[in-house]
Amino acid sequence: MRGALPTGDNLSQRRIYTDAKCPFCGEEETTFHLLYKCSFAAEIWEKAPFKASLVPEQITSIRDLIERAKNLICLPPCDIGGGPLFPWILWSIWLARNHRIFKDKQSSPRETLSQAIALAREWNYAQTHPPTQNQKLSTPGTKPTSPTDSETTVCHTDSAWNANQKVAGFGWVFSNCREDFLREGSECLTNIRSPLLAEAIAIHQALLHAYEMGITNLSITSDSKQLIEAILSETPHKDLHGILHDILILSSTFQKIRFSFVSRNVNRQSDALAKRSLLNIVPRPVIAF
Ligand SMILES: [Zn+2]
After folding, report:
1. d(CA 102, ligand 1 centre) in Å
2. What is the enclosing helix (H) or strand (E) of 258?
3. Which residues pair with 168 in a beta bridge?
């Protein structure tokens, strides 16, 4: 995932964080290093209960890792119902890294692998045992706007950008046809060079959250026609650089995914979240995109 995760090297490039060292081994923290090359990650991949092992010579990038890991089959005692384990390994390494940096909490490779297997099991259980009424969230008046089936989760995304300070707020709202699921979120980031990039980051953030929630069938909307066209055409765009690539890589982890353009009118909720988030760092009127 080129440039998407806030690993040390990416943050250094954005001048957000100066200590670009891997918290496990002290080497330079790139995404590839953290998730595969680091001795911490390597031990997890080696111990993971896959039928066959990854061949290090075949893996020179994060894309290689995802492509190869997608084909790995878990041995039966794992009890993860035939679902993939590798996304949970990646996710657990990321969590272990954050716990070590931000909470000073250390977990071993073995513990991290156990957590990945437990998460994969939980996800599998959630797929075969629908939530009870108590677990459902009510969503009065929220209807998906795309032609989707009942299993599809719709996510509206939007961003708000401040041209003077080059900062952006992002908002996303998840819902589904059954109206039993609604989750929303927002975030803001500095050093965002264009409104188009801000829209792309909003989508990328939404994808990360969808992935984290175990959503497999997703419909993403944006009111940036230019961005949706860039994603659908999969062609490089001068303003988007790595983020487009990251969106496409992350998209490949979903069973079903679609991207569509919607008018600003139906994107008001995510728009409001994005603006509110931006106001936290720029308490002045902003130009919204
Ligand atoms: Zn390391």
Report:
1. 16
2. strand 256-261
3. 161, 189
pTM above 0.70, yes or no: no
**How long, in residues, is the chain?**
289
**C-beta separation of 87 from 65 below 8 A:** no
Domains and CATH numbers, the chain: 8-128 (no CATH), 153-288 (3.30.420.10)
Which stretches does DSSP call E strand in 163-247? 167-176, 182-189, 217-222
CA of 30 to the centre of ligand 1 (A): 9
Give 155's Cβ-side CA count (13 Å radius): 29
- Sequence-ordered list of residues with C-beta below 8 angstroms from that of 170, at least 6 positions apart, any chain: 157, 158, 159, 186, 187, 188, 189, 198, 201, 202, 205, 273, 274, 277
CA of 57 to the centre of ligand 1 (A): 19
- pLDDT (tens digit per residue) in 25-50: 999 988 999 999 999 999 999 999 88
pLDDT tens digits, 115-166: 888 888 777 766 665 544 433 333 333 333 344 466 789 999 999 999 988 8
Handedness of CA 235, 240, 245, 247 (dihedral sign): negative
* Residue given tokens 């692998």 in the structure block: 113
Alpha helices in 16-173 (DSSP H): 31-32, 39-47, 62-69, 86-102, 109-128
> What tens digit of pLDDT does each residue of 68-114 get?
988 888 876 656 666 788 888 999 998 898 888 877 889 999 999 98
Distance 21 CA to ligand 1 centre (A): 8
Going from the Cα of 128 to the center of ligand 1, the distance in angstroms, rounded, reads 37
Q: Give residue 27 CA to ligand 1 midpoint distance, Å.
A: 5
